[in-house]
Amino acid sequence: MSGVLEGLKVLDLSWGVAGPMTGMLLCDHGADVTRIERPEGDPFEGLLGYKVWHRGKKNAVLNLKDDADLDLFYKLAADADVVIESFRPGVTTRLKIDYATLAATNPKLIYCSITGYGDDTEDKDKPGYDGLVAARVGLQYEQRGWPEGSVYHIKGMPDVFEDLEIDNDWVQGPDREGPLHVSSPWPSLGAFFSATTGISAALFAREQTGNGQQVKTSLLQGAMACMSGVWQRMDEPDAEGFNTWIMCSKSPKGHFKTSDGRWIHNWVPNPRFILESSKGDKLDANPDLTVQNDPDRFGIGPEELLVMSHYHPILADAMSKFPCDEWVEAAATAGVTMQECRSIEDSLTDPLLIDDGCVTTVDDPELGPINQVGITYRLENSPGKVKGPTRATGSDTDAVKDYAATLASPQVIEKNIVNGDPPLKGIRVLDLGLAIAGPFGCQLLADMGAEVIK
User: Fold this and answer.
1) CA–CA gap between residue 10 and residue 111 (Å, rounded)
2) Out of 29, 35, 43, 217, which could bridge 3 as a Cys pair, Cβ 3.0 to 4.6 Å?
3) For residues 255 and 264, what is the distance between their CA atoms, to the nearest angstrom?
4) Exposed, middle or buried, 358 (CB in 10 Å: 0-12/13-18/19+)?
5) Higher pLDDT residue, 291 or 30?
6) What is the pTM (predicted TM-score) of this model?
7) pLDDT per residue over 11-46, tens digit each?
């Protein structure tokens, strides 16, 4: 079965993380993606992630400052469905490959631009690096958290439990004050998902109008998208269900060390299960200890911090009596949310993830077999697949140039004038989702014009 994007032609001129991952996802789901490399190479090529981000794509080197190569690129762009670029604002105009130029000969083109801070802001010329964007928007401080919680901190409100003494072992991060570097590139990951969503919506809109359009996102917007649940603010932060101990830096987060030195995450910490099941010389995996049967389980209100601080050392002592595997098995029997904290190496060899396709093995010609993230969502009738490894720089240059030479020279085509309706206007969605992922996904659909019924 072919991928849902089979037949779609994509030119990927991007670098970094967000743009290449956008091209990767389109490629995984059937699109024919050609990576256009600069003669000087990609500055990110030395990162191992490069071997994942560009898998399955053709790779051609074109010098867009050379008239002959630029003419070939124009032919490819006139033949393409999607172009992805992540140049600094103004660069595509200087190179004469901006949206207006390419859309003049290909009105159906979807042109995706990913910048650091947008193309019309006062920060537009600042370097678009994940660490710097995370620092700019407060994500590095958010990583540590605040004693009074993020909501109270931004409002300048005092810590309700200022006199509560806590063990330093509960606090995440080093003892020093200040921001924490975020290892995961959240701004780029958010921008990657936003770009993919925007391209998909633009393709749907093209089916209705016949016209393409420019899709814009940024690492700044990507960071905000990833943290929108935390960064919402209101005038009355004490409103029911809004403020919570979860965002407080001094609250225990349910990490416990077991007797064999491994760590477990019990989220949310469950005193009833832990204390009742560990009373004897062996764990009691009692199904009656399920969370659903626990009327005293922790809520999300900030006052729960007092109860958490009381129970945490008691729970830590109980958890240290038995090994990790026994705790995980007992929790599964009782229907309690508990998971071993594993390394990435363990995850990439997990039979469940491999069988599901979330982890796949790609045979790289340089590094050999690589376990890497596979298909993370699957369509029943067109599931997609990882087409192959990342190809060597320039390995398809001759073939791509030969193909471009067969194409007619681009001609200016008059674009049909259509109204500015949202791209998903006319789509009706029933939202049965709970917690975060489902409702947030439907929020994005609603933002793009879909009618969402909760």
Assistant:
1) 10
2) 29
3) 6
4) middle
5) 30
6) 0.93
7) 999 999 999 999 999 999 999 999 999 999 999 999
Contact 140, 181 (CB under 8 A): yes
The DSSP code sequence of 13-27 is: ---SSHHHHHHHHHH
**pLDDT digits over 57-96, tens only?**
999 999 999 999 999 999 999 999 999 999 999 999 999 9
Pair of tokens at residue 164? 């509560």
Query: Where in the chain do CATH 3.40.50.10540 domains reside?
Result: 9-126+186-226+360-423
CA distance 434 to 437: 8
pLDDT digits (tens, 9 = 90+) for 303-326: 899 999 999 999 999 999 999 999
Amino acid making up residue 412? V
Round the average pLDDT of the chain to a whole number and report it.
92
Q: Degrees (nearest 5) of the Cα angle 82, 83, 88?
A: 150
Q: Calculate ∠ Cα 3-5-6, nearest 5°.
A: 70
According to DSSP, the β-strands at 359-364 and 338-340 are unpaired
Map tokens 């705790």 to a residue: 327
For 246-345, which CATH class?
alpha beta
Structure-token pair, residue 252? 């225990």
Is domain 9-126+186-226+360-423 given the CATH code 3.40.50.10540 in the classification? yes
Residue-wise DSSP of 319-352: HTTS-HHHHHHHHHHHT--EEE---HHHHTT-HH
Q: How confident is the model at residue 233 (pLDDT cuts 50, 70, 90)?
A: low
